Amino acid sequence: MSQSDVILPGATLGVMGGGQLGRMFVHAAQAMGYNTAVLDADPTSPAGLVSHHHIRTGYLDEAGLKELAAQCAAVTTEFENVPAQALDQLAQTRPVAPAGSAVAICQDRAKEKAHFVACGVPCAPHALIETPEQLAAVSEDLLPGILKTARLGYDGKGQIRVKTRAELNAAWEELQRVGCVLEKMLPLAYEVSVIVARGRNGQVVHFPLQQNLHRDGILAVTTVPAPSVSAEVSQRAYEAAHQIASSMGYVGVLCVEFFVLQDGSIVANEMAPRPHNSGHHTIDACDVSQFELQVRAMTGLPLVEPQLHSPCHMLNLLGDLWFPAGVTSQQEPNWAAVLALPGTHLHLYGKTEARKARKMGHLTVTASTAEQARAVALQAAAILGIEPF
Ligand code: ATP
Ligand code: MG
């Protein structure tokens, strides 16, 4: 496909994966006049439920991939653990953004860190552990640390915090001796992320940086503008994220998570080759959302530098909220009380079964000042049973 071949509205866009990110991608694509196809084996997947077409097969199913390629003018992914070979197979006949090669880097913490280093972006001191010899050779300097599976981790899953060598050994056993990365525990001042979109022509745009609060390894609250971050730190993070995307020849939306350390330095944590949970506020608080930019990047439509039009807070709505203290059966949170507050935007992902730590939806609170957004977000949190922040 040449640079000038734009895929116009009316065409069908495909997405690998049917989770909430796919659902919000589908919403954005449909709003712009595209048809959509989702490939996900789950008949009740959040994106499958709202898409024109839903192909219910696994990611490596030959027939499913053929059908997706036949239906779609271009394909993207909403899930970084889609096997890269599935994307490579689709790319034989259709434009795929991001490419399997970029997704493969993001799927593996060791490759991801090597890419950061190659870009001149600092990452946490770490060691690869694939063999008992490598485990035994780990430097004491990395303790206390976090042992993370190299592949398939998310929302703090596949991670164990270790203080001593004995704990490290036990943790590797617990993770069934799969390939892991041991990272030194760093003194975080706060966490931020940068979402960029890169077009086929190499143009890169970014959203204003987000400040993220995690609880139990899961994103809890995103605040924009980031209250603790200087213009200088933001600028360094933007430059790093642009470099990370460009040097992979990346096409599409990419999120890079950074730690800001107590001395003001930034360290790249990990990246996601897709729209990201820390960018959900862009639907309600920016003039173009991360999902619309994904549509624009994959179709070859122009990218524009997104603007934040309202200060905001985004609260993740985890399944825990459906089980307030003393309640054993699932109970719907009090949406009416939350929606009575000004500037609240409720997004639910269509998941019928609430489970602890499951992402059920999010609430974005916009206001004309950051103070107002925070005050209303705290009121909403109190109603929903979310700890104050
Ligand atoms: P995600 O859902 O973002 O993909 P994940 O399970 O892949 O999460 P990480 O982003 O690696 O996990 O880590 C989750 C959280 O744990 C981080 O946001 C941070 O709060 C904490 N954390 C991870 N690594 C370190 C470290 N080296 N030092 C201090 N804290 C860390
Ligand atoms: Mg993370």
Number of helices: 12
Give unreliable regions as ranges.
none
Structural class label: alpha+beta
Tell me the Rg in angstroms. 21 Å
Give the end-to-end Cα distance, rounded to a whole number of Å.
48 Å
Binned strand content: 25-35%
Order of helices and strands: EHEEHEHHHEHEEHEEEEEHEEHHEHEEH
Number of strand segments: 17
Largest sheet: 9 strands, antiparallel
The helical percent reads: 25-40%
The pLDDT mean sits at: 96
Bound molecules: adenosine-5'-triphosphate, magnesium ion
Structure notes:
- With 389 residues, the protein is an alpha+beta fold.
- 29% of the residues lie in helices and 25% in strands.
- The protein has helices spanning 20-31, 62-71, 84-91, 100-106, 109-118, 132-136, 165-174, 231-246, 282-285, 290-299, 335-339, 370-384, and strands at 12-16, 35-39, 53-55, 74-77, 126-129, 145-149, 159-162, 180-184, 188-198, 204-206, 210-215, 218-224, 252-261, 266-272, 312-318, 344-348, 359-366.
- Helix 1 (20-31) crosses helix 10 and helix 3 runs antiparallel to helix 4.
- Residues 124, 146, 148, 153-157, 159, 183, 185-186, 188, 191, 214, 217, 257, 269-270 line the site of adenosine-5'-triphosphate (ATP).
- Magnesium ion is lined by residues 257, 269-270.
